[in-house]
């Protein structure tokens, strides 16, 4: 029986979990919260307090997934567990690291792929580049096959635009030429499952995004249309009152290619564009 040890078992990892459990896997997920530990237990995951002894879990696992993001001090998993990882990673059949397409930086709406040089425009992007390099280094030393997944903007159940549109707080922030790529969380799980089933011997980098990079205001407008509600106000980016975090997302504009997940992993996206994804989310809401 295979076992996945998932560090920072969050939104994307939890979408993968039922796919693995259905195949008889054991999933161990780290968390810092007792409340979340209870929720993971209810989902069939063995919770493990982050910071606790990790050796026994690593000894049981043959797959490792890292979802925890880096901070100013670097990657939290490597900071906490490097000695144990140095000992056990070499026995893993697959190591996955969830990164971000933010590592590519700004391309003024142009296309990027997995071979595009990394030039992050934000501090978060630079920390991700450093974390990717740190994981690559430890996997090179141990011989573990590292698979890096660079995720575009994630949406899915509980992370759609409908709530703000219904509340009347949604705005269409307009910045000429701005486009973002996106990925539905179930398509993230689909790609991870495919990679686990066919790991690349030397590891690989994959972009995870849908087929339709689009301006953010178009997504909000379509959500309002699906709900039958008035079109939210259009606000010029320069005049918009945005938090520093929200404003930083507009520092980069690019279109992300996803050919590799299709050509190498045989993945066919369930939600190839935001229109298909939003329609499915609304159906799920109405059926629940």
TrEMBL record:
Alphabetically ordered keywords of this record: NAD, Oxidoreductase
Keyword Oxidoreductase in record: yes
GO molecular function, one term: 4-phosphoerythronate dehydrogenase activity
Record's signal peptide: none
Pfam families: Epimerase
Enzyme nomenclature, EC number: 1.1.1.290
Domain annotation NAD-dependent epimerase/dehydratase: ranges: 97-209
Name listed for the protein in its UniProt record: SDR family oxidoreductase
